[in-house]
Amino acid sequence: MEGQNSEVRSQKSESEIQHSAFSIQHSEENPNPQSPIPLLDLSVAERTVALTVGRGQRFIHHFRPPKAEEWLEYERAVKPTLIFREDEVETRAATRSASDALWQKLILRLEGYDSDVQCSSFSIQKVPLEHRVKAVTGLDQVQAAADQDVLGDSETAVVKLEAWWNGVFFPALIHRFKRPLVEHELRFREALERRAIVTRRIGGQKRPKNQALESRSLPVLPTLVALYDELIVGVEGYLIPNPQSPIPVFMDVPHKSAAVRALFAAEAVELEEFPSEEKDA
Predict the structure, then answer these.
(1) In what helix (H) or strand (E) does residue 184 lie, and over which residues does it extend?
(2) Contact, 4 vs 33, CB < 8 A?
(3) Could you tell me the sign of the dihedral formed by the alpha carbons of 268, 274, 275, 276, in that order?
(4) How far is residue 237's CA from residue 247's CA, in Å, rounded to a whole number?
(5) By CB neighbour count within 10 A (0-12 exposed, 13-18 middle, 19+ buried), where does 263 fall?
(6) 3-state SS class at 108
(7) Torsion angle, CA of 259/260/261/262, rounded to 10 degrees?
(8) For a Cys-Cys bond, which of 43, 231, 260, 278 suits 241, CB 3.0-4.6 Å?
C-alpha cells in the first residue's frame, strides 16, 4: 500500500495509482476550489472503485461497505506463513484468494463489462481475478498525511490522514487522541512482532519424524482497533452518520488502523555524540 499511496499525493486530479496494467481511477479532489473541502461521508450505502485497464478501458465496481469483522477476517487470511522443513523454507500467502473472497461478499453491481449488471453467480464469473484483487485494494486507500501540521497539547495527540473515498481525495482527516501512555505503545509494538510457531506432521502417520515448523504473523488489526477505540476523543473532516454515536462505532476500520500506526510512528532518536576533542580528553 505504501507504493500506491506515494502516487496519490503527487496526482490529485484524475489521479491513477499504477499497478502493472491496471490502475485505480479517481475523480478530482475538489472540482470547485472556491467551495469548502467536502466531508468524507461514513454513512454511504455504496463504496465505488473505478479501474482502468490497458489503454483506458474503464470498469466500476460497486460494493456495500465492509463490516469491521470482515476486515479482521481478511487480515487473518492474508498473513503469510513460513514453513520450515529439513532442507527448505516455503512461503505461503493467500492474498489473492482472500481478496477474491472479500470481493464476492461485498460486490453489488458492475459497470463497463458486457453490460451494467446486478451481480449474479453468472455475471461475477466473468470478472478477472486481478480486477477483483485491485478493486479490493481500492477500499483501503488511506495513510498518514505527509505534513503532520496539526499540533496537539499535553493531553492530546493529533494525527492527520489523507484518503481516497469513492473517487474523491480527502487531504485532511483529523483524529484527536488521548495522549498515549507507554503501556499503549508496548501493546502496539508487541502486536507488530507477534508470531505463532506451530509444529505439524507431514507425510502421514507412517512418517512420524517428517515434521515441519510453521511460523506465521498473528493478526495486528484487533490490537490497532482496540487502541483506537480506547484513545480516540474526536475527529474532523468526516460526515458523521449519528452525532450521538461514539466515534468507534462509525469509524471505518482501515482509517482506525492508519491513525493508530501514525500515532505511534517512531521518530528518529540518536545518541548524542561528544565532539572528537572531548572524546580524546
Answers:
(1) helix 182-193
(2) no
(3) negative
(4) 13
(5) buried
(6) strand
(7) 50
(8) 43
pLDDT single digits (tens) 39-48: 999 999 999 9
- Beta-bridge mates of residue 40: 238
In angstroms, the CA 155 to CA 173 distance is 20
Tell me the three state secondary structure of residue 217.
Answer: strand
Beta bridge partners of 45: none
Unique residue bearing C-alpha cell 466500476:
60
Angle of CA points 126, 114, 127, to nearest 5°: 20
For the whole model, what pTM was predicted?
A: 0.77
Going from N- to C-terminal start, the domains of the chain cover 2-280
Cα separation, 185 vs 192, in Å, equals 11
pLDDT tens string 55-95:
878 999 999 999 999 999 999 888 777 777 667 776 777 78
Give the H/E segment covering residue 77. helix 68-78
